[in-house]
């Protein structure tokens, strides 16, 4: 296993140096960029071996994924343009991940023993429990489908993080999420505008809490508790930090620059957000206004509610930016306002895909211009007209029928002086003073 890792963590190759020079000379990219991998191994008591998943991100974009439950048991591209990578790359990544699954399984077993936990992560006796950590930020995902029918649930459990090219929301969504006996790892590198290494990182968590992390010097480790101190001493004895440093300074930067070059046409695009405001009554006196931004890229966006052009940052609810499952992102911000004062509130949206910031208000549903009383009066009149027409039709039908039963002459209703004469005539008892035939 260690040989496989050392093959992966080689120093920069000649191809890498040529690629670095090409990107620097042509100034293909501005700003900093990150390549990050998120790995987790989660116990499944009674269901067999733990599940191992790793997802790689270049800035905001998922570039690859591996799932031990997948039938192929291979690392798969996370986007169409990533398929341009050479077949050897995918073979090498797959072998590395298979190695990690073996290491992750052993790691889970050792940590459960050190913390005196069962396979389900339950405490046995008086063993040590992983302590809470200030950096642990597990967040329950918002159910997008409950808030908006068009919103798409994130396609992956894992998301990217800060500082270069990532939103801190992704780290908050991911880090500390594998509670109940799970191992997490986040590792990778950042490069500057010149394509050179800015920083590297390698952090581990267990049972939803920080465990051990590589320091900024890439030469030493910080342990979170007594059990992690055992791991730190073992890793220092075998020189594990040097292997990670070689990977960060070498292959990690090489892969990052290669992905930047192959995905430049896609990654440099900008998709403006599709925005609107929804209205959600809370009570007779208050409503929630929610400002939506969907389908935007890149992930960096600002949503701010204002009242009379004054920011309400402290009073609004702002959810984390989420992947939309189609290479774009989603976000919303909400504020509670008094009923009837909705038009005093505006949502300001800033994104590089917009020529200028958008300012949105809630648009009430269209109301009919015809008053309700007029509509009711019209319906009453319509019913009266239809009733009159029906009565006239019946009278005409009976008139025609009586004409056919007589001599065939036309007998006009006006020939009778009263309704009584008409009734007697229809009963065959009254020979009228008109020319209408006598009924028999």
From TrEMBL:
Involved in the presentation of foreign antigens to the immune system. This is Saoe class I histocompatibility antigen, A alpha chain. InterPro entries: Ig-like_dom, Ig-like_dom_sf, Ig-like_fold, Ig/MHC_CS, Ig_C1-set, MHC_class-I_related, MHC_I-like_Ag-recog, MHC_I-like_Ag-recog_sf. It is a single-pass membrane protein. The keyword Glycoprotein applies. Residues 121-144 are annotated as: Disordered. Keywords: Glycoprotein, Immunity, Membrane, MHC I, Signal, Transmembrane, Transmembrane helix. The lineage of its organism: Eukaryota, Metazoa, Chordata, Craniata, Vertebrata. The chain crosses the membrane at residues 373-397. Belongs to the MHC class I family. One of its GO terms (biological process) is positive regulation of T cell mediated cytotoxicity. CDD domains: IgC1_MHC_I_alpha3. GO terms for molecular function: peptide antigen binding; signaling receptor binding.
């Amino acid at each position: 296993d260690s040989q496989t890792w050392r093959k992966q963590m080689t120093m920069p190759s000649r191809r890498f140096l040529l690629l670095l020079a090409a990107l620097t000379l042509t100034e293909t990219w501005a700003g900093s960029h990150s390549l990050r991998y998120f790995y987790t191994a989660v116990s499944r008591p009674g269901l067999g071996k733990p599940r191992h998943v790793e997802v790689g991100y270049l800035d905001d974009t998922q570039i690859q994924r591996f799932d031990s439950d997948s039938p192929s048991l291979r690392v798969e591209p996370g986007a169409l343009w990533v398929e341009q990578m050479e077949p050897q790359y995918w073979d090498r990544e797959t072998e590395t991940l298979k190695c990690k699954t073996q290491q992750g399984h052993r790691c889970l077993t050792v940590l459960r023993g050190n913390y005196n936990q069962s396979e389900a992560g339950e405490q046995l006796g008086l063993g040590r429990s992983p302590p809470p950590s200030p950096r642990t930020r597990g967040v329950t995902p918002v159910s997008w489908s409950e808030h908006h029918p068009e919103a798409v649930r994130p396609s992956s459990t894992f998301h990217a993080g800060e500082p270069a090219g990532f939103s801190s929301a992704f780290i908050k969504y991911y880090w500390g999420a594998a509670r109940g006996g799970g191992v997490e790892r986040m590792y990778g590198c950042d490069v500057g505008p010149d394509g050179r290494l800015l920083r590297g990182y390698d952090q581990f968590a267990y049972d939803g809490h920080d465990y051990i992390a590589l320091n900024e010097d890439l030469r030493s480790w910080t342990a979170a508790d007594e059990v992690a101190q055992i791991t730190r001493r073992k890793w220092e004895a075998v020189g594990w930090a040097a292997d990670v440093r070689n990977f960060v300074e070498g292959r990690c930067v090489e892969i990052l620059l290669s992905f930047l070059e192959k995905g430049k046409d896609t990654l440099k695009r900008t998709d403006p957000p599709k925005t609107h405001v929804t209205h959600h009554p809370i009570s007779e006196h208050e409503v929630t206004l929610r400002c939506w931004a969907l389908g935007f890229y890149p992930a960096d966006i600002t949503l701010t509610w204002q009242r009379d052009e004054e920011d309400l940052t402290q009073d609004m609810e702002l959810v984390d930016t989420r992947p939309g499952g189609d290479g774009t992102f989603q976000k919303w911000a909400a504020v509670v306002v008094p009923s009837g004062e909705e038009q005093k509130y505006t949502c300001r949206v800033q994104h590089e895909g917009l020529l200028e910031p958008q300012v949105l208000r809630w648009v009430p549903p269209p109301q009919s211009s015809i008053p309700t009383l007029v509509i009711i009066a019209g319906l009453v009149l319509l019913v009266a007209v239809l009733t009159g027409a029906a009565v006239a039709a019946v009278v005409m039908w009976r008139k025609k029928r009586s004409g056919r039963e007589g001599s065939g002459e036309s007998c006009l209703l006006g020939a009778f002086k009263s309704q009584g004469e008409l009734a007697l005539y229809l009963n065959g008892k009254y020979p009228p003073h008109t020319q209408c035939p006598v009924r028999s």
